[in-house]
Write a structure and sequence with these properties.
Layout lengths: L5 E8 L4 H19 L4 E9 L2 E9 L3 H8 L2 H12 L2 E2 L2 E2 L4 E8 L2 H7 L13 E8 L8 H18 L6 E14 L2 E14 L6 H15 L10 E4 L15 E2 L4 H4 L20 H18 L5 E8 L8 E5 L8 H11 L4 H8 L33 H6 L2
Parallel strand pairs: 3-6, 9-10
Antiparallel strand pairs: 1-8, 2-3, 2-11, 4-5, 7-12, 8-9, 12-13
Helix pairs in contact: 1-3, 5-6, 8-10
Length: 393
């Protein structure tokens, strides 16, 4: 039997965190190529440090002339991302940072494993395992600690960017320890919030006075009490932030990107990868399936695992775990999810409409637990498969 009384902690990082700057640039490059060609191949990695951004990896378009043209746009893409995030520091500024583009054409050996004369036989872009998870503990069917850690930082980014709180800087981290009673989240035992600030004279108490009202409005009513511990900028000043303070890399925040440690992770990062890469698309599909299982009332919690081999179209395995909360057996859930969705790489992309420039917006504040958008963004958060799942059992 699973534990019913415990405290669980998750963290989030803001769009200005060094690793998230890199995720943003990599996904912006991906969106640019997908905007040109929906079947573009992109595996883009970014490294950022003081006054320097280095972009590398593999890209592919069917028109080689367009490929060379797009290579010339990478510098502007990176600078636009840095500007939108808000970096205008002496040693990391969107106008003066040195951008090095080392992108090159996709390996023919990788392409031959993925491409196929018959679309149905298109293989996965790599081997690997992917997990999806959903739980009834929040309206978004996400674990509460990661969902509200994200929400706090999104709110602080909003008030920083709209001018309400000009003292805040782009780089920030949040961490929530959530108390569970009878398996349900009921309160917060501790809050950790570290945020960059632009005025060196501001103390930790000054920063808490700025951020506390936004934290209180973001968390559910009654979750904060006199016993809640607050740690706001616990080390004191936090003026130098972003890649000038700490180097960043694409794909280094995979737990922040997913379920905050509340569910397994297959190990593959998302940002900078086009949807032929099952690291990304199958992880989205697994979340979509798990969320629809819970939305259908088949379980209160659900984990879905998918596995793939490079060049092989169908998943090697489908695994479901309802954590003892299922209204049907785990085996029946596995059978149902395999029936209602084509889980080949192309089937996933078509069902979730993933060949669109919708990825830059995923680079911060989580890939899951977001609202589906009219242009296809966060399509994996829809619950439109619930009825089909019910009929399949």
């Amino acid at each position: 039997m699973s534990r019913q009384h415990y405290t669980f902690t998750s963290e989030s990082v803001s769009e200005g965190h060094p690793d998230k700057v890199c995720d943003r640039i990599s996904d912006a490059v991906l969106d640019a190529f997908l905007n040109e060609e929906p079947e573009a191949r992109v595996a883009c990695e970014t490294f950022a440090t003081t006054n320097r951004v280095v972009i590398g990896g593999e890209v592919g378009l069917s028109d080689q002339d367009k490929l060379h043209d797009y290579m010339g746009r990478i510098d502007r893409i990176a600078r636009d991302c840095i500007k939108d995030i808000g970096y205008e520091q002496d040693k990391f500024h969107h106008e003066t940072v040195e951008v090095t583009n080392l992108l090159h054409e996709q390996s023919a050996h990788i392409a031959q494993g993925v491409d196929a004369a018959d679309d149905k036989d298109e293989g996965a872009g790599d081997q690997g395992i992917m997990f999806g998870y959903a739980t009834m503990e929040t309206p978004a069917l996400m674990p509460a600690p990661i969902q509200y850690s994200h929400a706090i930082l999104r709110r602080l980014a909003e008030v920083r960017k709209n001018g309400s709180e000009p003292a805040l800087g782009p780089d920030a981290k949040s961490q929530l320890s959530v108390v569970y009673r009878d398996g349900k989240p009921v309160g917060v035992s501790s809050i950790v919030l570290s945020t960059q600030h632009l005025d060196e004279a501001l103390s930790s108490n000054d920063i808490r006075a700025i951020v506390e009202p936004y934290i209180r409005e973001t968390l559910p009513e009654g979750w904060l009490s006199a016993e809640t511990e607050w740690h706001v900028n616990p080390t004191g000043k936090f003026v130098i932030g972003g890649p000038d303070g700490d180097a960043g890399l694409t794909g280094r925040k995979i737990i922040v990107d997913t379920y905050g440690g509340a569910a397994p992770h297959g190990g593959g990062a998302f940002s900078g990868k086009d949807p032929t890469k099952v690291d990304r698309s199958a992880a989205y599909a697994a979340r979509y399936l798990a969320k629809n299982v819970v939305a259908a009332g088949m379980a209160e919690r659900c984990t879905i695992q998918l596995s793939y081999a490079i060049g092989v179209s169908k998943p090697l395995s489908i695994y479901a775990d309802a954590h003892g909360t299922g209204q049907i057996s785990d085996a029946e859930i596995e059978q149902a999810v395999g029936q209602v969705m084509d889980l080949t790489p192309r089937g996933i992309r078509q069902h979730l409409e993933l060949n669109k420039p919708i990825y830059q917006r995923t680079a911060a504040y989580g890939h899951f637990g977001r609202d589906p958008e009219a242009d296809g963004g966060f399509s994996w958060e829809r619950t439109d498969l619930a009825d089909a799942l019910k009929k399949a059992v």
